[in-house]
Amino acid sequence: MVDLMASPAKTAKRRGRRQGEPVSRETVLRAAKQCFAAQGYEKTTLREIALGAHVDPSMVLYLFGSKEELFRESLRLIIDPDVLASAIAEGDGDIGQRLVRTYLRIWEGPDTTHTMASMLASATSDADAREAFRSFMQSYVLTAASSALGGGEQARLRAMLAATSLVGTAMLRYVIRVPPLSELSAEDMVALIAPTVTRYLTADADELGLPAL
User: Fold this and answer.
1) Terminus-to-terminus CA distance in the chain, angstroms?
2) N or C: at which end does the chain have fewer Cβ atoms within 10 angstroms?
3) d(Cα 96, Cα 102) in Å, to the nearest integer?
4) Whole-structure pTM value
5) What's the CA gap between 137 and 20, in Å, rounded?
6) How far is Cα 90 from Cα 93, in angstroms, rounded to an integer?
7) What is the mean pLDDT of residues 141-166?
8) Where does the chain have alpha helices with state H?
């Protein structure tokens, strides 16, 4: 006779992650972003990130290899290179206005201001975080932006020149908070910075003095 009553072991609700269940990279990245924002790069440990993601620390290393790589990939959760590329490629108004406005919106989002400031500060104070930020800019942001500009080394240089205005503005406005830059409205900042960004992105190469690459 077949016993139709399931055992308690079979009917008990499982808690936590099931054995063998795939670990989401996004889950680990979200936990990493929170840790980096709260403590900065240097004080954040892989064990803390694993705890926040409810996984074993060895799984964090398996998925990302290092804390530096985690920091680099976490930046993509905040600054989506495709969003910046889209602002360059299409939309209403001047190309510089679109890009600067989009960039400032990322910085001034209610869930991103503190995180962005903390991670940029880490990139200026820690060698590993700085290398991760450099790699993020080169591999993701500049690649996406230069592709939107038509590709090639000169397009990449134009994107880098525009980035000097954007990153410098973010450092002074949001991280160091130097007045009056930190006190101006976002639209005032767009009006002030956009002409320079537009020139970097669209002016004749000879006018800018771009080298032949």
Assistant:
1) 82
2) N
3) 10
4) 0.79
5) 35
6) 9
7) 93
8) 8-11, 25-43, 46-53, 57-64, 67-78, 81-89, 95-107, 113-125, 127-136, 142-148, 153-170, 186-202, 205-208
Is pLDDT of 136 > 80? yes
Whole-number Å distance between alpha carbons of 100 and 104: 6
* 193 neighbors 162 (Cβ within 8 angstroms): no
What is the distance, to the nearest Å, from the Cα of residue 18 to the centroid of all Cα atoms in its chain?
A: 31
What pLDDT shows up at residue 22? 59
Q: Write the pLDDT tens digit of every residue in 14-23.
A: 333 434 445 6
CA distance 136 to 81: 10
Answer whether 20's CB lies under 8 Å from 57's CB: no
3-state SS class at 91: coil
Cα 53 to Cα 23: distance, rounded to the nearest angstrom: 9
Cα–Cα distances in angstroms (integers) from residue 209 to residues 96, 150, 194, 213, in the given order: 19, 19, 20, 12
Looking at residue 56, what DSSP letter applies?
Answer: -
pLDDT in tens, 47-83: 999 999 999 999 999 999 999 999 999 998 888 899 9
Whole-number Å distance between alpha carbons of 117 and 123: 10
Cα(121)–Cα(40) distance, integer angstroms? 8
- Phi/psi of residue 4, each to 5°? -85, -5
pLDDT of 133 > 60? The answer is yes
The predicted structure's pLDDT at residue 172: 94
